[in-house]
Amino acid sequence: MPSPSATSHRPSPIGFAPPFIDEDTIEAVERVLRSGWITTGPETSAFEKDLAEYVGAPKVVCGGSWTGLAGVILDWFGVGPGDEVILPAYTYCATANVVLHRGATPVLIDLPQSGQRDGLNITWEQVAPLLSPRTKVVMPVDIGGWPVPCSAWKTALTHWVSQHGFKGDHPMQAALGRPLLLSDAAHSLGGRSGGHPVGAGADITVFSFHAVKNITTAEGGAAALTLPPPLDNAEVYRTLRSHCLHGQSKDAASKYNSKGKGQWRYDVTHPGFKCNMTDIQAAMGRVALKRYPADLQHRAQLAERYVERLSGLSAVDLPQRSHEDRHTADHLFIIQLQEGMSAHRDAIIDALASQDIATNVHFPPLPVLTAYRERGFKAADFREAIGAFDRAISLPIHRHMSLNDVDRVVDALTDAMANLKGQAVS
Questions:
Q1: Which of 110, 114, 115, 258 has the maximal Cβ count within 10 Å?
Q2: 145 and 270 fall within a common domain
Q3: What is the per-residue pLDDT for 251?
Q4: End of a domain among 216, 251, 286?
Q5: Residue 395: strand pairing partners
Q6: Range of the domain at 388
């Protein structure tokens, strides 16, 4: 057993993505709890307005999760059996699960070859050949916080429809006149693309506020609406808000805060879902959003130290962080091990864990998961995505870390790789 003096000098563990809950957050939640209004109400409405201003969208609707909101949006757009949704194979399962839940078909795209990559995102050049009359939604994913150039994609999608036509099988599809560009921005709140915040480029951009995200409401999400005419973003907001609460024509705040006879009465205009955001969650989100510029700056400093320390390590490729008019939200810092070291990926993770440094791997590509393999997706068709996954390690980057912590991670990583390389040589 180590002596007390030995254990007292052991560095504190570095968690992978612990939530940042400060006293302001606790006070905000306490204030809402004491208010007597804890479900969807004034705090949620205020958070929606704060987010709309932050991302530059006409309207933002909040919900109980990214998954719940994405599902409601697909349902609102009439996506169902026989329809196709184009999305990457390299993503978390939620991106495709919501498509399967509607009875539609996810059309998966492999990553580009290594010399043609845009971070770990798919590209428009890959999407265009897969567009067909069955395509109702194109859903790119901003892996790690690196944004897809959605404004350019929207222009390209509109041009494609002008050449090939589009048949909408649902009133919302007919109104838009083309497939919906639905951005999975679960990682990229605070990123920028085309000179604008992420959330202003796609038709609808969905963010996640899960416990490990840059901003957390414990669980939760938000959808930024920037739909073109003739669609009315305010009307779509009201519809999605309703669909998140069973399709009720009035939420609790509308019923109980209204004056006059019969205000309790409501209708159910659509067989909706139960994925509304509560005021408790929104109170956490409002505090986090207020301090978010400082949080982003802190993440950027950590990422820049990683780049500074790792740029000379030939066995590691670093994540894409900035290019022309795009900049990451630094949600994840995913390194790629080069050939010769990738076989030792799990051993490296274990070596860092032995130093109380937590890492992660993002994400197992969909075709290697049982649910998708059993639906006919073959790993052999997605070699680039699987190869990138096999070489990936996500290093910790979060508000609790210091630059010294980054140095500690890099030192442990470098030592682990040197030891493993030495073992391989011997």
A1: 110
A2: yes
A3: 76
A4: 286
A5: 333
A6: 292-425
pTM above 0.85, yes or no: yes
* pLDDT > 90: percent of the chain: 87
Nearest of 250, 299, 291, 253 to residue 272 by alpha carbon:
250
| 148 burial level (CB within 10 Å; 0-12, 13-18, 19+) | buried
Among 265, 286, 307, the domain-final residue is: 286
- The single-letter code of the amino acid at 194 is G
Nearest-angstrom CA–CA distance, 420 and 201:
45
Q: In the predicted model, is pLDDT for residue 424 greater than 60?
A: no
Grade residue 114 by pLDDT with cuts at 50, 70 and 90. confident
pLDDT tens, residue by residue, 306-330:
999 999 898 999 999 998 899 999 9
Is 15 part of any domain? no
Establish if 2 belongs to a structural domain: no
The reply to whether 221 and 344 lie within a common domain is no
* Strand spans (E) along 219-366: 221-225, 316-317, 322-323, 326-327, 333-337
Note the pLDDT tens digit of each residue in 185-220.
Answer: 999 999 999 999 999 999 999 999 999 999 999 999
Interacting residues of 51 by C-beta distance below 8 A, sequence separation 6+? 57, 60, 62, 207, 222, 224, 285, 289
Q: How many domains does the chain have?
A: 2
Please indicate, yes or no, if residue 228 is contained in any of the structural domains.
Answer: yes
Would you give the DSSP letter of residue 57? -
Q: What is the CATH number of the domain that holds 205?
A: 3.40.640.10
Beta pairing, strands 316-317 & 196-197? unpaired
Cα(37)–Cα(71) distance, integer angstroms: 27
